[in-house]
Design a protein that fits this description.
The protein is mainly alpha-helical. It folds into three domains: 8-80, Arc Repressor Mutant, subunit A (Orthogonal Bundle); 112-174, Arc Repressor Mutant, subunit A (Orthogonal Bundle), CATH 1.10.10; 179-251, Orthogonal Bundle (Arc Repressor Mutant, subunit A). It is 53% helix and 11% strand. A three-stranded antiparallel beta sheet has the order 7-9-8. It has a two-stranded antiparallel sheet with strand order 1-2. A two-stranded antiparallel ribbon has the order 3-4. α1 (8-21) packs across α3 (47-58) and α1 (8-21) packs across α5 (97-111). The longest helix is centred in the last third of the chain and has 16 residues, at 179-194. The protein is globular. The two termini are 18 Å apart.
């Protein structure tokens, strides 16, 4: 499963088209997407639309049915033990465009965990030029997700579209934390601090992330709550945090 050439706004457009029109045949969806393509694309070409449809399908946001392509429903995820992903219907229900983009990216990050290590590298080393990212990761793989020049370029575009990274004069810098990256970093630092089993005091974990990544306190608190809701983190007395690794396995964020 390869990362497709599809920008985040195009993926969101595909979801909105189905949400507005109901199930659509591939031709109907392709024609509608072609009319919305605006960035460096030939509007008469079908390849871009095919990439958008394939990426949405790979990310479990749409599904082909007898009636045509439709949005996936929340109950289709319940039996898979997967956390921190969303159905197509949940994306539409997110409200504003930013929240929808965050949920789309969460699913793509699940299918393509290379996006985790790309963004983490920039968060730790930034500002970083794109050629530095290429030099670091070209030919590498993370959780079986192989990286090459195309997938790295496409990954950087998606991360920039979602404001996860921001371009600057000296290269990419840290932007808005995605929840899956937060969970990945929490797992790494938690494991490094305490090893297998046990718990850690929340102030100690925050201090570690603040030192290494400059994470704001508000962002840390908000995402700890989200991980708690997902069952990944349990909060005990005296501000103790325990990572529930059996639940975390369903997040696909570590090797």
């Amino acid at each position: 499963m390869t990362l497709q050439y599809a920008r985040l706004f195009q993926l969101r457009a595909g979801i909105q088209l189905i949400a507005e029109s109901g199930p659509m045949s591939k031709k109907e969806l392709t024609d509608a997407l072609r009319q919305r393509k605006t960035i460096n694309a030939d509007e008469t070409a079908t390849e871009g639309a095919d990439d958008i449809i394939e990426q949405l399908r790979d990310a479990n946001l749409i599904k082909n049915s007898e009636e045509g392509y439709r949005l996936t429903a929340e109950e289709e995820f319940n039996d898979k033990g997967v956390v921190l992903t969303y159905s197509g219907e949940e994306v539409v229900g997110a409200g504003d465009q930013r929240a929808q983009a965050d949920r789309i990216l969460a699913n793509i990050m699940y299918q393509h965990p290379m996006l985790l290590v790309l963004s983490k590298f920039i968060y730790r080393k930034g500002p970083v030029k794109d050629y530095e990212v290429m030099r670091e990761f070209d030919g590498e793989a993370f959780i079986g997700d192989k990286m090459n020049q195309f997938t790295i370029d496409m990954g950087l575009d998606l991360l920039e579209d979602a404001d996860v990274i921001e371009p600057g004069d000296n290269g990419y810098i840290q932007g808005r934390w995605p929840v899956r990256l937060f969970a990945h970093v929490i797992y790494e630092e938690y494991s490094d601090l305490i090893g297998d089993g046990g718990s850690i005091r929340e102030p100690e974990l925050f201090e570690r992330l603040e030192t290494l990544y400059g994470i704001p306190r508000r962002t840390f608190d908000n995402y700890i709550k989200r991980l708690h809701t997902a069952g990944i983190v349990s909060e005990g007395s005296y501000k103790q945090l325990t990572l529930n690794e059996s639940v975390l396995e369903g997040a696909k964020i570590y090797e």
